[in-house]
Design a protein that fits this description.
29 strands, 48% strand, 4-stranded antiparallel beta sheet, 5-stranded antiparallel beta sheet, 1 helix, mainly beta, globular
Length: 364
């Protein structure tokens, strides 16, 4: 997904951060406060209990509070499970972020005002709580790899060797959250993607004072950054990184109107996916295919193409869904997230079922 950037980020040199499970007392107090806030008084959040059936998680704003939402794809149900502790220095200018690591852990970060480090929590599915983690980084997108994790800055916060502005990528050890190395990518990171099956991340950045998108592939284990030729005549909409190989998704400069057409062309280093006839809203990749959610009129078309040869495999139309925000693959089908709803789609049969989120989607 495109990386969300924000103005006003102060330059600073990142420092190593180590994880620390918040003390039992603090965690208990934080969880109790969240539950008390959620269940009492006007604007309280009704919490569900389907922790076991939740195959994936999202963040939503429910009655003014940021909550962890459990999604049960089999039952087509979404419910609030935990309220994120609210603090006076939380900021609404940047959306909180949730991500699943390769080891199965779910982490969420909450941005704060005044350049303060993000607050971090780990979802404790056993105790049904949010466990606090220490850290001193802010406004960074977490990209999970196979054994390492990359944290990518949203705006330039460093300088390259020639003095030009650059964005830093911190390579972290997820077991204890220490920094192994710091990488620098020229310009502003607009797109960032990873695959938990690979310790490689794919980045798309805008050169300083230039047009177009520069694609880079960064090896987390060795720190090597390799520039990749960007496709010409394509307006880049998204970037995927299956198995550590960049897949650039975009629309032609002069897009046509009519039926949505998705084409995939293999390159020496990855692939280029061109979507014509509709607006690209969300993309995702599996081991063998690429899936695109494109808006056409008041509907959304879900198109799956073979990652090896570009052959169209499946297509399904979701009527009445004029915009989608993200895609998630589950054993029960694809989940298409919108602002207030989730639609489960079986691409093989074309059948879909829509269900409501308990609030407004923030991240998934």
């Amino acid at each position: 997904m495109p990386y969300l950037t924000t103005p006003g980020r102060a330059e600073r040199r990142p420092r190593p951060a180590g994880p620390a499970r918040a003390s039992a007392v603090l965690v208990a107090l934080g969880s109790a406060l969240a539950l008390t806030t959620a269940c009492s008084g006007p604007g309280g959040v009704d919490l569900g209990k389907d922790w076991k059936g939740s195959g994936t998680f999202a963040l939503a704003r429910v009655d003014g509070l940021v909550t962890v939402v459990g999604i049960n794809p089999d039952q087509a149900r979404a419910e609030s499970l935990a309220v994120v502790p609210q603090q006076a220095d939380d900021t609404d200018a940047i959306s909180p972020h949730i991500v699943r690591l390769a080891d199965g852990r779910w982490l969420l970060t909450v941005p704060r005002k005044g350049g303060k480090p993000d607050r971090r929590y780990e979802i404790n599915r056993t105790e049904h709580t949010l466990d606090g983690l220490t850290g001193d980084e802010r406004l960074r997108r977490i990209l999970p790899g196979r054994s390492l994790v990359a944290e990518v800055a949203g705006l330039p916060d460093a300088r390259s060797a020639d003095g030009a502005a650059a964005s830093t990528v911190l390579v972290k050890e997820p077991a204890h959250w220490t920094t192994r190395r710091e990488l620098k990518v020229p310009g502003t990171v607009d797109f960032a993607a990873s695959d938990p099956a690979s310790d490689t991340v794919c980045l798309g950045s805008t050169p300083n004072g230039g047009d177009g998108t520069t694609i880079s592939v960064a090896g987390l284990a060795d720190g090597k950054i390799t520039p990749v030729p960007a496709p010409s005549g394509l307006e880049v909409k998204d970037l995927l990184c299956p198995s550590g190989r960049p897949v650039v998704v975009g629309s032609p400069a002069k897009a046509k109107t009519g039926d949505i057409k998705v084409t995939l062309k293999r390159t020496a280093v990855g692939a280029v996916v061109t979507v014509d006839g509709g607006r690209v809203d969300a993309t995702a990749a599996t081991d063998h295919s690429v899936v695109v959610a494109a808006a056409v009129g008041n509907d959304t078309e879900l198109v799956e193409v073979d990652a090896a040869n570009g052959k169209e495999l499946h297509r399904a139309r979701i009527k009445g869904l004029s915009a989608s925000l993200s895609l998630t693959s589950t054993s029960a089908g694809w989940l298409v997230y919108a602002e207030k709803t989730v639609t489960r789609v079986d691409l093989t049969t074309g059948r879909s079922k829509q269900f409501d989120l308990p609030g407004t989607l923030l991240d998934s």
